[in-house]
Amino acid sequence: MSYTTVQLKATTVGGAGAAVGSVRKGISPAKLIGIQITYHGSAPGTTDIVLKNVLNGVESTLVTKNNNAVNIPLQAFVNKPINSTAAQVNTHVEPPVSGELLLEVAESDALTDAVIVTCILKV
Prior knowledge:
By secondary structure, the protein is mainly beta. The protein has strands at residues 3-10, 19-39, 48-55, 58-65, 72-76, 96-108, 115-122. Strands 1, 2, 3, 4, 5, 6 and 7 form a seven-stranded antiparallel beta sheet that branches.
């Protein structure tokens, strides 16, 4: 097994507290073993993110984080790693991913690299 890093940088456009953005990256079949979430220093506390795996048009949610712009340092991926209040749940799992990773950001301000999600994959 080898490891690779995939970074998704979402830039948002729109009004204050209402800006949205998304970014997609193609990936080879792998297991998601780690994740880090970094917010722009000016991202408001209303910022929502959703990280999804998209394969053949079918989306499955990996992470949802609502109304919170608190950075999450690199950590092992866990089942429901971050709930809507940014609390961490410690049930370890390595979900399989392939196709694309999709990061969606909403309710932010218009910012370049509003949210950066770094994923560690075991390929």
